[in-house]
# Entry
Amino acid sequence: MSENTQADLPLITALQTVLASKQIPNMLNSQQTKALCNSLNCTTIELAERMLPLAASFSFAPKSDFKVGAIAIDKQQQLFLGANYELEYGPLSGSLHAEQSAIFNALSHQADELTDLVINAAPCGYCRQFINELANANQLKVRFNQQSYDFPQLLPQSFGPNDLGVKTPLAKLELNAASQAPDFAKASYAPYTQVQSAMFAYQGDKVIAWSCYLENVAFNPSLSPLLTLLSQLTLNHLSLNNVDRFELWEHKDNRFSFKQELQNFAEHSQKPMVHHYYPST
Ligand SMILES: [Zn+2]
# Structure
C-alpha cells in the first residue's frame, strides 16, 4: 500500500488480515465490512471515512493534482471505492469525478440500493446533478467534512429524470445475463437518447476493464464510457501498460457515437482500437 496511505496503520493491518492481501481493495463485500467494523470497533460510515485516503489513492489527476476519493455504500453494507480520473490531454472537461467513479463501480458490481455516499471533499454541482439521476436520490445520505446531509438538501429546486417523464431512473444495470460484448452495451442507461455503447480494454484475449454509457437528464454530467473505462482500469490496479487494445461496441442505430473520443485516446496512447456495430448487418 502506498506511502500516503500508511498513516492509519490499524486500518491497513485490519484490511490486510481480513482480505489476506496487501492490495488496496476497490470494494468490500458485506462480510468484509462486518469483519473490519468488528476489528476496528467502528460503524460502516466510520470505516468508509477512514478508507477515503485509500479511495483517493486510485486518483489520476495530472491536470488538477487534486485527489478525490469517494465511497458508495449499499443496503447490504458493501463499500465501493471511486476516485477522480483526468485525461492528460484535451479540455479540462475530460475528467470523471470520484463520486461518478464510485457509483459506476457499485453499479458494475450489481450493488443493492445505495444508501450513503462518503466523500473527502464537498461534491461539486456537476456531481450533485449526476447523483440526482439515481432512482433513490431522495433517500441517499451524503457525508463530507464530518457532516451528513440528506441528498435533497444539497440540490434544492432540482431538475431530474421526472421532469422529462422518465419513470425508471438509474438503479441497477441489466447485467444478469451479460456474456457477449453487445450485452454490456445494452446495459447502458440512456433513457433520453436510447444510445447503447460499451468499451472494453483487452490484455491478450482477456477483458481487464469495461464500461458502458450512463446518461444524465442534463447531459453534461453523463458518463463518458472512455473515462469510466480508464477509471475502472485504475481501480483494478492496472494501467495503460496492461492494455493491448481497446474495443468499442455500439448499436448501429445510435444517434451519436463515441468512436472519435476513443480514436483520439487510442492514438494518444498508441494502442489499437476496434469499432464494432451490432446487430451485424
Ligand atoms: Zn464532482
